[in-house]
Write a structure and sequence with these properties.
Blueprint (H helix, E strand, L loop, with lengths): L2 E5 L5 E6 L6 H5 L7 E6 L4 H13 L3 E6 L9 H14 L6 E6 L1 H13 L5 E6 L2 H7 L4 E6 L2 E8 L4 E5 L8 H17 L3 H8 L10 H20 L21 H10 L6 H18 L5 H14 L10 H8 L11 E5 L5 E5 L3 H11 L2
Parallel strand pairs: 2-9, 3-4, 3-5, 5-6, 6-9
Antiparallel strand pairs: 1-2, 7-8, 10-11
């Protein structure tokens, strides 16, 4: 079964979820709209699938360039970005041509920024190949790269013309990568759709089964949460519907999570870091009387059931705090955290006391 979700932003587009949906790429590229060239930016592990995507486009007499970039966060830097620009320049890429991002979240982040920056913006399509990429990076128009100072500090808002989430590719995804992606789905459950949490608790042994309809349902629900959030607040202004905090809610667990990723030189998976960050945020909320002990315990229980980490190393608070102060969610010198004021009730906690943050850190350090 194929599901089609509309992302109703300024330039609406569809996210298509199902088996074999990569075959819809030809239509999204826009054959007949003046397109002459397509660049498929892909990770090394997706080289064979890039060829599969390439063949029907070549049959349409399009010039297709395969641009291989490093795996994971190693792709998200200025050097790789410059390499992609070089290929586009040498290939004569024009404003009517199209870029395709094929791979995990890091690859689609990079491909989107290449598209945003080339000729001040060309069309692009995302074909995410991980759970994380499907429910988080590929949808929403956030594109960017990392710098030595932090993650995603350089980027642009640039929406794709479509996203194809082909569930077939998940059958070869390593178990650890699949669990990492589940962290972002759990986040969506805590901030917006508690039925996600109910599904996981009812069948914990099936959520990581790539052939299970439960995993497909969880992915669809996670994408739906993100689509609703970005529709009302594309550029993260903090103005959500009905007085909510808008797209900023999607940063739940990310302030500390990004700091952990940088401290560990991205040797820890994104979802693993976000899992720890969510427990940290829940500890902050509990200690500031925003949530009760049961909701804090539910964080630990669900994340533990999936096999995600709940703690980080001890003795690194100062390094993490310094990185968080550079986080793009910070305003001036004031740290801002997304916390819960109850299930599915995200709020911003601005400028919490240092002692409170240190207490929460001690609760998650080992």
């Amino acid at each position: 079964m194929t599901t089609r979700l509309k992302v109703p932003t300024e330039r609406p587009y569809d996210v298509v979820i199902g088996n074999g949906v990569h075959e819809q790429l030809r239509g999204l590229v826009g054959f007949g709209l003046g397109v002459m060239r397509v660049a498929i930016i892909h990770s090394p592990t997706m080289a064979a699938r890039a060829e599969i995507l390439r063949d029907p486009l070549v049959s349409d007499a399009l010039e297709v360039h395969l641009i291989e970039v490093p795996d994971g966060e190693e792709a998200k830097n200025a050097e790789v970005l410059g390499f992609c620009w070089k290929v586009l320049g040498e290939s004569g890429f024009t404003r009517s041509d199209v870029i395709v991002g094929l791979g995990g979240g890091a690859t689609t982040d990079l491909a989107g920024f290449v598209a945003a920056s080339w000729l001040r913006g060309v069309r692009f399509v995302n074909v995410p190949t991980t759970v994380l990429g499907m429910v988080d990076a590929a949808v929403g128009g956030k594109t960017g790269i990392n710098t030595a100072e932090g993650k995603n500090l350089v980027g642009a808002f640039h929406e794709p013309v479509g996203v194809l989430c082909d569930l077939d590719v998940l059958t070869t995804l390593p178990a650890a990568e699949l669990r990492s992606g589940l962290a972002e789905i759990v986040k969506c459950g805590f901030i917006a759709d508690p039925t996600i949490l109910d599904l996981i608790e009812a069948a914990p042994g099936r959520v990581a089964d790539t052939r299970s309809p439960i995993l497909a349902e969880l992915i669809t629900k996670g994408i739906a949460v993100k689509a609703r959030a970005v529709a009302g607040d594309l550029r993260e202004s903090g103005a959500g519907a009905e007085g909510g905090i808008g797209r900023e809610a999607l940063n739940y667990g990310h302030t500390l999570g990004h700091a952990i990723e940088r401290f560990e030189h991205y040797r820890i998976r994104h979802g693993e870091a976000i899992s720890i960050g969510m427990v940290f945020a829940a500890e902050i909320a509990r200690r500031s009387d925003q949530i009760d002990q049961d909701l804090l315990d539910r964080h630990r229980s669900i994340l533990r059931t999936i096999g995600l980490p709940l703690t980080c190393r001890s003795g690194i608070w100062e390094a993490l705090a310094a990185t968080m102060r550079l986080d793009k969610k910070t305003r001036g010198d004031q740290l801002r955290f997304v916390v819960l004021k109850g299930l599915a009730r995200p709020v911003i906690l601005a400028g919490p006391e240092e002692s409170l943050l240190q207490d929460a850190y001690r609760a998650i350090s080992s």
